[in-house]
Design goal:
Number of strands: 5
Number of domains: 1
CATH superfamily: Glucose-6-phosphate isomerase like protein, domain 1
Strand order of the largest sheet: 2-1-3-4-5
Oligomer: single chain
Largest sheet: 5 strands, parallel
CATH topology: Rossmann fold
Shape: globular
Radius of gyration: 17 Å
Length: 187
Amino acid sequence: MKKIFKKKIDSYVEMHSRTLRKLQLSGKIENYTKLIQNCLKKNNNIFVCGNGGSAANSVHIASDLSTIINKNKKRINCISFNSNLSEITCIGNDIGYYQIFSEQLKAHGKKNDLLIVLSGSGNSKNILKVLLLAKKMKINSVGILGFKGGKAKSICDMSVDLNVDDMEVSEDFLLIVHHMSKKLLME
């Protein structure tokens, strides 16, 4: 039992180390941060969404971004589409679960806003639907995506693809990418 535990933990740690090194070299964290800074400068909204563990990360990210204050005391207007349970359940019941994010984007989004999607697989129907709507509405989109990025990778304007074939590590990195960006935003 002890050998199996050590082997699994060593593998988990190695996946984190490898992914962190790749991210540091890619420049994608800086590009992601510039998109957020641009929204702040132009008073655009940021929307974040995801499913399962990514939904929890979405709420965390929106909370963090809404409370960051830059040098000019401006705040970022950031909303998680996962935080309004009555809206999610209403849309899911009346229209369909696959539209829980796109219907909220229709109601709240405008040209040049930013949509951040979080997905371990990049293949969830509701994520793909909101990304396609963002394109139609001329809303910029970025995906922080696990595995190979799935179908979402080709729809996003920019992706921070983690290229990790492990859901737990992917979900960890959805938040790590955000925290790395937050460090840059607070400079």
